[in-house]
Amino acid sequence: MRGYLLLFLCSLILLLSCKKDTLKSPVASFLVIDNISVNPTINQGSNSQKITDMWYYVDGEFKGVFPIGSVMPIVASNTAEITLLAGIKNNGISATRTPYQFYKAINYVQPIEAGKTYTYSPIFEYSSNAIFHYTQEFNSQASLFISAGDSSFVWVNNPTKAFGGTGGSIFMSMSDTKPTAKMLQSTPYYLPIGGTTVYLELNYKCNQTFVVGVIGGGTTFEREAITVSASDEWNKIYIQLTSVISTPPTYQLNGYQVYIKATKQVQTPEIYIDNIKLISF
User: Fold this and answer.
1) Are 216 and 173 in contact (CB under 8 A)?
2) Taking Cα atoms as reference points, which of 234, 176, 262 lies closest to residue 49?
3) pTM value surpassing 0.85
4) Considering just the CA atoms, what is the radius of gyration of the chain in Å?
5) Residue 100, CA atoms < 13 Å, CB-side half-sphere
6) CATH of the domain at 276
7) Are residues 151 and 113 in the same domain?
8) pLDDT per residue as tens digits for the range 157-189
């Protein structure tokens, strides 16, 4: 009897050991994203970007949104299909993070070794479906914008005042007697309505706020999209214009004009604008 009991216990231990090995999860590996860049083609403007997050998929399964530089887990055996979507702060607001629809997703196959950490430096490209209505880098005085305020903006050819230290930029300032500065797109552009995605990208540096919006062609009514906060250093913002363009009444036939406007708030206002892109699908 004692021999049968001993045999039973040994068999039970062996069975539980095998079952534990069978149920054991694969050992995780890890992925870290760094050195992100954007590679525009001709007529797509500058390579400036402010990608803040990765929307991360492994083998087609969404794994979460991770700030750049985070350690992201990979639970897979042998290889994993990685998909990365470039995440931005919509309208510069941290609470409205979203994948930027105009950047293509990146897909690649990563060989996996359990417990190992991999580093990847993605180069994003614009979608082939993106329509660039215009790009304006202000490398010369030629401009798609006109002054429409009390104070006229000026083109500045000074590396210390331009994004990236090369080329030029637009400088806006105001005075007590001329308290309003306004850049207005000189020609109305056809932009899609019905909720089609439209964005304005731009780089800026300023010591007070300014407003970005659109005007329906043939009117003077300003539709404000966003108020941009002051930034002591050059910053990049992705401004969604979809709602202000698609909200009735719409002006699809006469087009829309983008405007950038500021009213004096500080003793010596300084607003610099560079690398404007108007994009839609």
Assistant:
1) no
2) 234
3) yes
4) 26
5) 31
6) 2.60.120.200
7) no
8) 998 899 999 899 999 999 999 999 999 999 999
Domain total of the chain = 2
Residue from 207, 154, 153, 150 nearest 177 by CA: 150
Tokens of 85: 């979507």
Residue ending a domain, choose from 103, 124, 145? 124
133, two tokens: 């209505």
Note whether 165 and 99 are same-domain residues.
no
- Give the structural domain span for 82: 29-124
Q: Given a cut of 50, is residue 7 above it in pLDDT?
A: no
User: Are 42 and 88 members of one domain?
Assistant: yes
Q: Which of 92, 124, 156 is the last residue in one of the domains?
A: 124
Res 26: pLDDT: 58
